[in-house]
Amino acid sequence: MNAHTTTPLHEAYPYFTAEHEMLRQTARRFIDEEVAPHADAWEEQGMVPRAVLRQMGDLGLLGIRFEADYGGSELDTLSTVVLAEELGRSTFGGFAVTVLVHTDMAAPHLHHAGNAEQKQRLMPDIVAGRRIAAVAMTEPDAGSDLASMRTTARREGDHWVLNGSKMFITNGVYGDIFFVAAKTGEAGRNHQISMFIVEKGAPGFTIARPLKKHGWLCSDTAELTFENCRIPAGNLLGEEHKGFYALVKNLQNERIVLASQAMGEASKAIELTLDWVTQRKAFGATLWDKQAIRHRLAMLSARVEAAKALIYNTAWRDAQKHVVTAQAAMLKALCGELVNEVMYDCLQFHGGMGYIRETAIERMTRDARIQSIGGGATEVMLDEIAKRMG
């Protein structure tokens, strides 16, 4: 399947159905009509308007994996891949990650571990886009190293009291519901982490500061602080001390999602660059007539298609309940590096225009840089893969 294909997914790959293709077309149409004309302004504002997310909720795009009882569609991992890829193709990485953190990195904690009361109270608003979710795991001194987490939670009667801080939290400024990881066990018991539901406005919970970033400019990102933050005892999410395993479990889905977003971005970048080099003339011919350029784009296109095939196979296996921990780490490492390689060359082939803020490829190149860092740095992923070799 080449960069400009319009072949329906279910005709191109055995994993997909006509339902997946309908989802793709719905997402693509929404992005073309409601995102592309306005997202430059969102980049300036540093946020995605919540009305846009409510529109996505109305279309069913925020609840594709969740229970029908709460407005979801109960679809599979392949559906998540389709949505993430289309969001990546939007050319606005900040918009894409705003949505995907809500749907696939934060809300799944409630989906998997929430009790009936918690789900009934929160999930309908999450699926509808009326309230936006975030997950608060990373800390200033503990990135991918969960064992180094310092935020604590202690039980006091009918409440939990949280103390600590979280860093690089997507949807942190304008989010409404935060799924927060905190240590609840004895000192030195690294895995005794629990998950908590903290809603905006909880006493002792503050947005310390919004963070200015290199890319993903329309994604609101913040540092959070908890100073004797009191929440009801019923806001414990899942079992006490079992949060470490909940975080690890969801990281698998997160890595598949981020890889899919990255390859959506890479595919779109190649398309934009192909359009550019077939029109741009230099030294009496188009750039496409230069063998070095067309060969490089051809190889990048081949590698992106190969990465997509691995994503689709991994998503299908995950939907069949197979363990794909190693494959998810492979995807995160492979696609995070590949999307940056694609963007570097695509910007290069745009020449001086690629360095100008008014071009999509300039923004996409900035946005892609985080893909080899966020959600687990490439080096961490490679260590995870190596542990499972042999």
List the helices and strands and how they pair.
Blueprint: H1 9-12, H2 18-35, H3 39-45, H4 50-58, H5 77-89, H6 93-113, H7 116-128, E1 133-136, E2 152-156, E3 159-170, E4 177-183, E5 193-199, E6 205-210, E7 221-232, E8 236-237, H8 243-279, E9 281-282, E10 285-286, H9 291-319, H10 325-350, H11 360-368, H12 378-388
Parallel strand pairs: 1-4
Antiparallel strand pairs: 2-3, 3-7, 4-5, 5-8, 6-7, 9-10
Provide structural commentary.
- The chain has helices at residues 9-12, 18-35, 39-45, 50-58, 77-89, 93-113, 116-128, 243-279, 291-319, 325-350, 360-368, 378-388; strands at residues 133-136, 152-156, 159-170, 177-183, 193-199, 205-210, 221-232, 236-237, 281-282, 285-286.
- By secondary structure, it is α+β, with helices and mostly antiparallel strands.
- The chain has three domains: 9-131, Butyryl-Coa Dehydrogenase, subunit A, domain 1 (Orthogonal Bundle), CATH 1.10.540; 134-241, Butyryl-CoA Dehydrogenase, subunit A, domain 2, CATH 2.40.110.10; 244-388, Butyryl-CoA Dehydrogenase, subunit A, domain 3.
- Strands 1-4-5-8 form a four-stranded mixed β-sheet, with helices on one face. A four-stranded antiparallel β-sheet has the order 2-3-7-6, covered by helices on one side.
- Helix 6 packs antiparallel against helix 7 (116-128), helix 8 (243-279) runs antiparallel to helix 9 (291-319) and helix 9 runs antiparallel to helix 10.
- The protein starts with 8 loop residues before the first helix and ends with a helix.
